[in-house]
Amino acid sequence: MEALLQLKGIDKAFPGVKALSGAALNVYAGRVMALVGENGAGKSTMMKVLTGIYTRDAGSLLWLGKETTFNGPKSSQEAGIGIIHQELNLIPQLTIAGEHLPWPRVR
After folding, report:
1. I want to staple 3 with a disulfide (CB 3.0 to 4.6 A). Which of 8, 26, 76, 97 is the partner?
2. Residue 63: in which H helix or E strand, if any?
3. Separation between Cα atoms, residue 29 and residue 16, nearest integer Å
4. Which residues contact residue 78 at a Cβ distance below 8 angstroms, ignoring those fewer than 6 apart?
5. How far apart are CA 52 and CA 70, in angstroms?
6. What is the C-alpha separation between 92 and 19, in angstroms, rounded?
7. Is residue 62 situated within a structural domain?
8. Where is the signal peptide (predicted)?
9. How many independent structural domains does the chain possess?
10. For the residues 17-23, what does the mean pLDDT come to?
11. Mean pLDDT across the chain, nearest whole number?
């Protein structure tokens, strides 16, 4: 089975930090997957490279068998790739305290 999405040899560095070095990921149709690892392992960086939030320093991204580069989340979403970031802020106008105030529970 051919991967729908392939990231190969991905490198990404920030000043003083090599976040990704030769990272790879294959995503197949009809399969559930998880990207897991310790804090600082590069999971979020990999997803941001995938969706074009960060530009990769090296490596290739193949979508449906074709080399591609996404210029940001909009272009990756238009291609059919979307992710839910772990830092997702659903209600940006609320503070941490506001998010923890007792709300009526709906059943």
Report:
1. 26
2. strand 58-63
3. 37
4. none
5. 5
6. 28
7. yes
8. none
9. 1
10. 96
11. 86
